[in-house]
Amino acid sequence: MINTRYKRLQDLEEELRIIRSLYDRFWPEMSEQQQDYLANNEHQIVKVIRLLEYQLAGYTPKSNF
Q1: Which domain of life is it from (predicted)?
Q2: Cα separation, 20 vs 61, whole angstroms
Q3: Residues 7-52: tens digit of each pLDDT
Q4: Which residues of 7-36 are buried (b: 16+ CB within 10 A; e: fewer)?
Q5: Looking at CB atoms within 10 Å, which of 7, 13, 42, 45 has the fewest?
């Protein structure tokens, strides 16, 4: 179970790197809708990363997390 979480965490961190590279390359050329979509995806990935980090560290996140 823990190995699965570590793997998922690594996959999410890679997705986050990809999204942030898209920011760097294409942000000025994107429409506002595309920017919002990318920002929302980044936000969701960061939330899941934090949740997994808490779980792997043995903490229980607050319910509003």
Answers
A1: Bacteria
A2: 26
A3: 999 999 999 999 999 989 999 999 999 999 999 999 999 999 999 9
A4: eebeebeeebeeeeeeeeeeeeeeeeeeee
A5: 7
Q: How far is CA 17 from CA 42, 55, 57, in A?
A: 10, 22, 22
Residues in the chain: 65
CA dihedral 37→43→45→48, nearest 10 degrees, is -140
What does the alpha-carbon distance between residue 4 and residue 65 come to, in Å, rounded to a whole number?
A: 21
Domain boundaries, the chain: 2-57
- This prediction has a pTM of 0.78
